[in-house]
Amino acid sequence: AFSVVSKLLSQRKLDLLDELVSAEVLQVLKEKISLLPDSHRDALAADIDAIMYTTEGDVRICYDDDGRKFVSILMRFWYLNGANLPDEVPGETKVFQIVFGDESTKEKRHLLTANYEFQREFTEGAKPDWTITRIEHPRLLE
Length: 142
Fold this sequence. Notes:
Blueprint lengths: L1 H9 L12 H13 L2 H6 L7 E13 L5 E13 L13 E5 L6 E16 L8 E7 L6
Antiparallel strand pairs: 1-2, 2-4, 3-4, 4-5
């Protein structure tokens, strides 16, 4: 889900996120994405093969006032991306240079992070669908 959503964000195909992302988050994303430079927009895309590490940041079970039960899982992702970002992006993890072939051909990759929170209702009879309720790409979507 992270790879699919991040690519759709990068391509500005926000209309395809209606069933995957909460309405509140989608509204904020529409505003932020329209203001992004192309290099930052390109850096949002995380190819599934470029995801280096994932970990859960927080798992919560909550109930609303009507007694409905929800589970939220905050996932953190580290991924490599070849977008043309400046080397001095503040707070970014170290820039790696990967050499393919000879020394004259270097391909620069950035190790970037993203936080996505997934929520699902576990009340009996509720649809078993997960919804993304938070999307953070530090230094890119701010």
